[in-house]
Amino acid sequence: MSNSRNLRELFPCVLGLAFGRLCFTLGSFGSYQSMPEGMGGAQAAVAFFILVAVVALLFFVRKVQLTDAQALFGARLGIVGAAVIIAVAAVVQGNDVLRATLSFPLSLLLSVFAAGVVFYWLRLAKGTHSSVAVVYVFSALGLSEIMLLGLHMLPLPLGAAVTIVLTLGQLVCLKCSRRYAPLSTLSFAHGTVGFYDFAPRFTMSSVFLASCAAAAGLLSVVVGALRGYPHGLPIALSPEALALQTLVLVGLSLLIAVLASRGNRDIISWGLWALVEMAAVAALMLYALFPHTIMVGGVGTAVANALLGGIVCYVVISFESIGKRDPYYYALAGWLTWTLGRAAARWALLLIGHPSTLAVFTVLSACLMVSALAIFMGYQKGALQQTVVFPAPAPFSAAIGARATQAAAAAPSTPADAASLTSTAAANEAAQAPLPGAASETVATAPATPAPAAPTDAATAWKEGLVALGETYMLSDREQQVLELYAGGYTQKRVAQQLGTSLDTVHTHVMHIYAKTGLHSRQDIIDYLRGREA
Description:
There is one protein chain. By secondary structure, the protein is an all-alpha fold. The chain has helices at residues 3-29, 42-62, 68-92, 96-123, 130-152, 156-177, 200-203, 206-227, 239-261, 265-289, 294-322, 327-352, 357-386, 398-410, 423-431, 456-472, 477-487, 492-499, 503-517, 522-533.
């Protein structure tokens, strides 16, 4: 599938996520003219945080699993509800009494509805390739920043009307997105290693989860303190500062999306974290260099905050793609990690009143160092996990070993699958003939030689091994079907014909199988099954 087609099919979701982020930003910020915690102040932020925590706990304890129809209904309800709240907020804006009375509930409701819609757009990206997830999130980030800048330049009545139209525009985006195949079928760059392309047995380990949570939490603390530097109060941004912030964010988002679409391994994995770290460091330096013009540092802070929000969305997509719980659970957990650190840092500055500048710089620098160390250690361990070479134990039955030897002798020298991911995978396409438990495929360049029937117990063991592999690494039903045919000797083209789907779709499923299992070729799969049986 070409990149232009990928972009065309991805665009409705990108636009919808951009609209959703714009609506959520208005609910949590009020506008980008300053950096408050919401239209209703800190009370709305606290209430939203508590509500998210309660819902996340409910999802965790009761193991809630929503159907696609329920999630879609909730998204539509959230879109309409957010549009109504924005309209009401615009009406009461001119009345001081009503504004003072309703600002808190309106801000809370808008944040809840808008966050729910954003969560749905993230839910649609479950199971996507890492390159698609990065392009999806950061394209929407850059697009929403342009919209926010445009809204800032409009007078309130007109700005509210435009915001309502854009919010309701998500309904059109939902309809358009359903015309295309799921996002999980798209892939900009085959074979790249991204955040969740590490082996799931490692990614879901407590060590890696803890390192990611610690890094995101500490970065949130830094961003939260910077947003209220130096006393916890909002930082007003001039139109020039807003324009500069938008220019920087759009440029960085475009750079990230382009690099990800070209399969850049660094930007897809640790590079995103490095950008947030550098943005936070830049903000600290700007505050130090321009102590009497904190607006300058506020630009760097806004950039770091927006990039961190993008990373949180990417992490949510990552863990919902490999986790067993409902995608909303991971979205709620990500939002808690993000908002808790920011709020705690702001409140700490407000409680202290006039903290020492040196003390603030020391604490924030330490948080940045520890967060960078957590990410470095996590990805280092993940990279090492990826390089593990599976041993080749003795075949789990003589019939399997004899059949594999005979298939290797009869196979043609030219790879049968032109869409192989690596040279190793390409060689295996030609070397591996159908094994017990899968239908055989006639090779045009070699005479058909009837193969001796495999013993029933060997075929059963092979089938059970494939099922166990799928259950261990949480493969989807479709991935399980592809695995059984692919491991049995079918080329990817033949698998596509057998399942009645496209070669690109099968190729993507094979990529997901490799990413989830940590295996890198058909031979690795066979060796894994033999080792398990032995």
